[in-house]
Amino acid sequence: MALNFWDNDLPSTTSPMESKDPFAQRVEAGMRRRGLTLRGLCRLAGLDPSFFSKVLSGKRSPPSDEASLRRIAAALEMDAAELIVSAGRIPSDWRALWDDPELFREVHALAAGAGRRTARLPVAARVSEPEAAAPARPPQPERTRRQERFSEELL
To answer: For residue 24, what are the domain limits?
Structure first.
């Protein structure tokens, strides 16, 4: 059964990790990996422990400012973009998504297909849609009829 982490009525078979949102899961995993307490993380990231405790318990939303999310990621020694996205934000260094509609469609298709990855060519190396839609030419015979007549004339 697929769970939406925004649902309030989670089944009783849900483990504590499944009931947490992706941000809280990543932060708690990072804290365990680094051996940090809540207060230790907050000290490193410059956050209020009372506020951040509520974030991790799901009573408050993750910080909305990217600078705070980047400080948390740095304290946890994790990828900032991953943590920012898990908080429901788009990292500022992903600005190309707004400027390049084709890139946005590709990222959206990958995200919507969650987990179904296929080998992909770089955008510049791909064939344009009209070329891709054109039927393939049938294989050419090694020798054309003209070449055969010429060969017969020589004999």
So the answer is: 16-89
How far apart are alpha carbons 74 and 45 in whole angstroms? 8
Domain count, the chain: 1
Three-state DSSP class for residue 62: coil
Strands (DSSP E) found in 62-112: none
Asked whether residue 52 carries a pLDDT value surpassing 60, the answer given is yes
CATH code: domain of residue 53: 1.10.260.40
In the chain, what are the helix, strand and coil shares in percent, each to the nearest 5? 55, 0, 45
Q: Is the pTM of this model over 0.90?
A: no
Query: Which of the four pLDDT bands, split at 50, 70 and 90, describes residue 96?
Result: confident
Place of tokens 């708690």: 28
